[in-house]
Backbone:
């Protein structure tokens, strides 16, 4: 399961908003989750994100796996933090996670990656004179979003292989092949990008 | 036209290629050889992914060591594993990614991507998550990502290794219909019947260079 949902085509007001505005909104919301430390305000942010999903009318079959995964992650994190720290700290961390990942997923559900990349390249254009390379930043963001999906695919197949060998509880049986395959993927991706001319333009 | 003039390559002390002299005007050419024979390194030199440590490569008169960007605009490269080549979440976005430097608008790029996908058996897949396509469809998508730029040369490094027999045949049939000069690195010898020239490499050297039948006979002897 990809923690960042893939684009779900639609015509809701959120789908129609410019990609740059949505990206800025997401950044603002994620920054707020870091700055706020009151569970009440963080809960308000979670509600705002939930409202966003309602406005975007994301189909339930796309939404349910995300909600299940978010709640599971939040529950594990809450239990761990409540045990190690306090219920207040646990609530803050879990709510931050739900709000931030929920907002990031809402962006990817309602915006094509190439629209985000194009908006970033446009927005960062004026910074060219300071040595910023907008094409590279845009590519970096696009690849990051794509890598989340690829890495979760690698993790699933490595887990499956570990299960096949009866080693589902072994950290080594997961970590070593995951690391090797991730590094191989990075190497091959770099070569593929070079072959497609990435880096030639700037 | 692709030219290798006294080309050699070494990784540290290990010699991967030595004294390769080839002139390749043919439209359908294959590099075959045992694992580690240097065929993939030779193929990567065609678009400057690997540069020779001795000698010179020329593609349509351009040296990839000096004009890398210009050569890459002329040479498309399809890798063994399409998962590593697909860089955007949906099929349409991935093909449009190749057009990012073209003067087309975003809408025009998306439309062109749809057209190329439709022309190569992926009609209606533009909004489909790329990594949920079948192996054969992913390799077609990787090919579309290259063909949308209309290169003069297409280099394919073992593109059929991960495909089933039907998809292998389909992929090679598609290659046969392209206007581009195709350089295919492969272990699937039965796919080379329609090729004009097969170059056999062994331990970094060209050991046979002929029409498919005699060249592959030589290769089979090597493998015994």
Residues:
């Amino acid at each position: 399961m990809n923690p960042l949902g893939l684009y779900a085509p639609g015509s809701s007001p959120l789908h129609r908003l410019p990609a740059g505005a949505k990206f800025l909104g997401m950044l603002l919301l994620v920054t707020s989750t870091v700055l706020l430390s009151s569970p009440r305000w963080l809960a308000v942010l979670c509600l705002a994100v939930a409202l966003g999903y309602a406005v975007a009318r994301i189909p339930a079959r796309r939404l349910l796996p995300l909600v299940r995964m978010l709640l599971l992650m939040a529950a594990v994190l809450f239990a761990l933090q409540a045990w190690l720290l306090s219920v207040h700290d646990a609530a803050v961390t879990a709510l931050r996670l739900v709000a931030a990942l929920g907002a990031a997923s809402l962006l990817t559900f309602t915006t094509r990656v190439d629209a985000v990349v194009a908006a970033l390249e446009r927005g960062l254009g004026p910074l060219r004179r300071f040595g910023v390379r907008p094409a590279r930043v845009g590519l970096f963001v696009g690849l990051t979003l794509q890598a989340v999906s690829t890495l979760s695919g690698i993790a699933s197949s490595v887990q499956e292989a570990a299960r096949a060998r009866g080693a589902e509880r072994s950290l080594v049986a997961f970590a070593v092949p995951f690391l090797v395959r991730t590094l191989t993927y990075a190497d091959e991706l770099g070569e593929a990008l070079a072959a497609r001319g990435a880096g030639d333009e700037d | 036209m692709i030219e290798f003039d006294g080309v050699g390559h070494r990784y540290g002390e290990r010699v991967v290629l030595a004294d390769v002299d080839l002139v390749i005007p043919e439209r359908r050419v294959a590099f075959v050889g045992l694992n580690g024979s240097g065929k993939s390194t030779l193929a990567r030199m065609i678009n400057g992914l690997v540069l020779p440590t001795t000698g010179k490569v020329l593609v349509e008169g351009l040296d990839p060591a000096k004009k890398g960007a210009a050569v890459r605009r002329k040479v498309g490269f399809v890798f063994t594993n399409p998962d590593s080549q697909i860089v955007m979440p949906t099929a349409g976005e991935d093909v449009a990614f190749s057009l990012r430097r073209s003067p087309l608008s975003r809408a025009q790029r998306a439309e062109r991507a749809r057209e190329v996908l439709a022309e190569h058996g992926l009609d209606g897949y533009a909004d489909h998550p790329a990594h949920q396509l079948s192996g054969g469809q992913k390799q077609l998508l990787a090919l579309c990502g290259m063909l949308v730029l209309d290169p003069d040369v297409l280099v394919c490094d073992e593109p059929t290794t991960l495909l089933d027999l039907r998809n292998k045949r389909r992929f090679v049939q598609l290659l046969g219909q392209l206007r581009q000069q195709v350089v295919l690195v492969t272990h699937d010898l039965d796919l080379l019947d329609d090729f004009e020239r097969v170059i056999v490499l062994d331990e970094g050297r060209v050991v046979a260079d002929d029409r498919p039948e005699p060249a592959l006979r030589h290769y089979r002897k090597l493998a015994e």
